Amino acid sequence: MAVPLESEVKRRAADTFGRPFDDPAIEGPLRGNHHEAYAVPLPDGGRAKYREPRAGLLWFDRRCFASEEELLLDLRGRVTRVPEVVDRGVLVQRFIEGRTLGAGVLPSKALSPKHRSQLGELFGELTSLGIDDVGARRVCDDVDRPGDGDSHGFLTRLINFTEQRVYREHGVAYHGLLAELGVRDGALDHLKDRAETLTPRPFSLIHGDLHRRNFIVDRKGDLWAIDWELAMIGDPLYDLATHLHLMRYPGKEAEWVSGLWRQAVESRRPECIKGWEADLNVLRDYKRVQSVYTDVIRAALALSQRHPEPNLGLLPLIAGRVRQALTAARHPLGLRAVSTFPEVMSAYARWLRTRPGGFDSAAG
Questions:
Q1: What Å distances lie between residue 285 and 103, 155, 227, CA to CA?
Q2: 232 HSE (CA, 13 A, CB side)
Q3: What distance in Å separates the CA atoms of residue 274 and residue 236, rounded to the nearest whole number?
Q4: Pairing label, strands 91-94, 215-218
Q5: Strands, DSSP E only, in 8-113?
Q6: Nearest one of 233, 33, 241 to 140, comparing CA atoms
Q7: What angle do CA 144, 150, 155 make, to 5 degrees?
Q8: Partners of 138 in the beta sheet?
Q9: What is the pLDDT, as a whole number, of residue 356?
Q10: What share of the chain in percent tops pLDDT 90?
Q11: pLDDT band at residue 105 under the 50/70/90 scheme
């Protein structure tokens, strides 16, 4: 996403740290879907990350905590290798120097033994923080806070968010496109029924977005977890399901990581592994279905970014990704067949021709 040369976010970042706007030491904007972010030098020689949410974005996931920085302060000393928080009049995070876990490798590469061990440590530390152990302010409504151990209620609320907020409220401009790809009203009903079968498990803190770009490998080779904005309190198995879905591990690696999660959780709170093997499939199916809504809408927005002419050069790549998401979610969505690559291409081409008012209307 293009950022104006005279970015107001960059100006506020420079002002916060007493730097000139054109200081070459200010790096950014950094890569990210949800925020415009900059790395700014600190007096001690390190750097901090200043960021603000991008305007006009659709949010595909529920927010639980009022402030990511407040949460990180609460986790200090209890979760290893998370960003330090710096107070500069506003709370900002110290920048973790290193590379993302996925930098320069295939997106499905297996973890090293060291990083497997540190991932297991993270799973265990998160699970040890129960529903009364996290003091950071929460902003989710009471109706979105199921009782401790209500795994069915937890997943049902996530499904309802996808159905009500993503599909019915934000996705109105894309209903025709989704329907042409086989995703219609009631597509989530079967998943709601399956949620009723979940085994109750005590709740814990969940990161909620443990993918390769949210892991930083520092200069010592240690693994840090960043971007805690989707953290919540809920079924600890959800973190494993989300992680496996986003990491796309090769071969038997998903089984290795699943065993790692079980071992780490069982050593901290053994009651949290009840029914995990059967329930993992249900939670992973939710992630597959959620990705269809996310990928279809984000693809439409990406094609529409060049106004007034659509960015048709992206169409083949986008069609491939959307078809991949549809294929993965075929059974939980109850699709009789998955649209072919040419059919996905044609569906987007028709949507681009018929969308009212161009990009501004589609993104509203």
A1: 27, 11, 24
A2: 25
A3: 11
A4: unpaired
A5: 35-41, 47-53, 85-87, 91-94, 98-100
A6: 233
A7: 60
A8: 65
A9: 55
A10: 79
A11: low
Which tens digits make up the pLDDT trace of 70-79?
999 999 999 9
CA distances for 304 relative to 36, 118, 231, 301, 307, angstroms? 20, 41, 30, 5, 7
Which residues touch 110 (CB under 8 Å, ≥6 apart)?
249, 250, 251, 253, 256
Length of the chain (residues): 364
Whether 170 contacts 203, CB under 8 Å: no
Give the H or E element holding residue 42: none
CA angle centred on 191, ends 188 and 193, rounded to 5°: 115
How far is residue 295's CA from residue 205's CA, in Å, rounded to a whole number?
27
Distance of alpha carbon 313 from alpha carbon 292, whole angstroms: 21
79, 52, 206: which is closest to 138 by C-alpha?
A: 206
CB-count burial class (<10 Å; 0-12, 13-18, 19+) for 87: exposed
**How many degrees, rounded to 5, is the angle at CA 171 between CA 168 and CA 173?**
120
d(CA 134, CA 30) in angstroms, rounded, equals 30
Cα separation, 64 vs 70, whole angstroms? 12
Compute the average pLDDT of residues 202-211: 97
Helix (H), strand (E) at residue 116 = helix 113-127
- The letter for the amino acid at 276 is W
Q: Which amino acid is at 160?
A: N
Sign of CA dihedral 337, 338, 341, 342: positive
Average pLDDT, the chain: 91
As given in the structure block, the two tokens for residue 38 are 């900059």
CA dist 248 and 246 (Å) reads 6
